[in-house]
Structures are given as C-alpha cells and as structure tokens.
C-alpha cells in the first residue's frame, strides 16, 4: 500500500508549512488526485487520518478532487479522455498515447487557523 507513504509525505509537507508559517491548526487539506495516478482516494483518506495524529493536521478534513485522465493520441492526432492507463484511444483504438492529465497527486489548498 503505497498510499501510506504518500499520506505521510502529504502530512509532512502540510505540517512543515503550517509550523513554518506559524499556523495553529490545519482545518482542511485539499488534494487533487489524477484518475491515472494509481492512487486510491479512499486508501489515502484512511492513511491520512492515521499519519496526521500528533501533527498540526490532526483532525483536518481531507477534501479530494479527482482529476479526469486525458491523453494525446499519436495515431489519430487528437486529445482524448482516458479512464485507465491501459485503455486504447476512444477515437481510433490506438495505443500510442501520451498521458497529459490525471497522472499526478498534489496538495491544492490548505485551510488553516
């Protein structure tokens, strides 16, 4: 379960930033998770609660925004939506795809006190 190490990294980043900037508490962490990133949102949610204990993010709400996948198809020359990394191009059935959107996970926003 790589989500545990990802959740630890998110909490470390949030905790560091909150302490550095002198905040007392993190109320909400807004994460963007791409549907092609291989990260399970529900697993991150579970792990986040576990690893946030004892940090400024303890008790913070985790708001997850899922980003759709998108790829450039070299066969038909179109930007196409993509639901999974192994899917073919929905327009021409080709597999020569460059994934452009939905492959990352990032902290988008913090709500703090």
UniProtKB/TrEMBL annotation:
PROSITE patterns per the UniProt record, alphabetical: HYPA
Any one Pfam family match given in the protein's UniProt record, by short name: HypA
Binding site for Ni(2+): 2
MF term (GO), any: nickel cation binding
Record key words, sorted: Metal-binding, Nickel, Zinc
Binding site for Zn(2+): 73, 76, 89, 92
GO biological process, one term: protein maturation
Gene3D superfamilies attached to this UniProt entry: 3.30.2320.80
InterPro entries attached to this UniProt entry: Hydgase_Ni_incorp_HypA/HybF_CS (IPR020538), HypA/HybF (IPR000688)
Similarity annotation: Belongs to the HypA/HybF family.
Role played: Involved in the maturation of [NiFe] hydrogenases. Required for nickel insertion into the metal center of the hydrogenase.
Protein name, entry field: Hydrogenase maturation factor HypA
Species the sequence originates in: Ferrigenium kumadai
